[in-house]
Amino acid sequence: MSLGVHPALLLLLGGATLLYMGRRKKNPPPSGQPGRYFTWSELTTTSRNVDNTPTPEAADNLRALCAQLLDPLRERVGRSLRVNSGYRSPEVNALVGGSRTSQHMTGEAVDLQPPPGYTSKQFAQYVLDSGLPVDQVIWYDVARGGHTHVSFSRTRNRRQTLHAPAGSTGYEPWTPEGSAMAGVGNFEKNPGV
Ligand SMILES: [Zn+2]
């Protein structure tokens, strides 16, 4: 043995690894499509090389998010909406530095690329003006990705409005135009970003 490792030891290690992997519980792939205009692949995309299959509960939340918010929004906009980040397993969320209370982990939030002609702020305003049920709407400065975060909850839709400014990792209240539902007094320290 040039490497000085007994083949039996390698076999043993290999067997133990396979056993461990087989034991790790994996979520079953969800059936059908989450929405009329959205696919599981779009809503679970991740650049990280880890499993990002939603739990059955998160899959149900993603279906509700599509039915109540994303599909109707897509129809209003009249063109496809790009999802930059949707569901994140706790592992993926940790890897991308997401909030510990992130609604991405429960399948209640997506980050949308604003359609051409819209800034993230204008698109956030558009979402609110649509009157569709939203829990949180957050617009990100270009320096922080330039996307618009929207969430939908099956139990509460607070219409919280926040801004993620440049030069910070935090969030500020944002008061949308022509609306009494100001972000002021509506601010939460740990948004579901
Ligand atoms: Zn987000």
Question: Which helices and strands, and how do they pair?
Answer:
Blueprint: H1 7-23, H2 40-43, H3 56-77, E1 82-85, H4 90-95, E2 109-113, H5 120-129, E3 136-140, E4 148-151, E5 160-164, E6 172-173
Parallel strand pairs: 3-5
Antiparallel strand pairs: 1-2, 2-4, 3-4, 5-6
Could you describe the 3D structure shown?
The chain is an alpha+beta fold and 193 residues long. The protein has a single domain, classed as 2-Layer Sandwich (Muramoyl-pentapeptide Carboxypeptidase, domain 2). It contains five helices and six strands; from the N terminus they run αααβαβαββββ. The protein has a six-stranded mixed sheet with strand order 1-2-4-3-5-6. A hairpin with a 7-residue loop joins strand 3 and strand 4. The radius of gyration is 20 Å and the shape is elongated. The site of zinc ion has 5 residues, from strand 2.
Give me the CATH architecture, please. Answer: 2-Layer Sandwich
At the first level of CATH, the class is: Alpha Beta
Radius of gyration (CA) equals 20 Å
Q: Average pLDDT value?
A: 88
Ions, cofactors and other ligands present here are: zinc ion
Order of helices and strands: HHHEHEHEEEE
**End-to-end CA span:** 54 Å
Helix/strand-derived class?
A: alpha+beta
- Order of the strands making up the biggest sheet: 1-2-4-3-5-6
Q: Tell me the number of helical segments per DSSP (H or I, 4 or more residues long).
A: 5
In total, the number of domains comes to 1
Helicity, as a percent range = 25-40%
CATH fold-level label: Muramoyl-pentapeptide Carboxypeptidase, domain 2
State the oligomer.
single chain
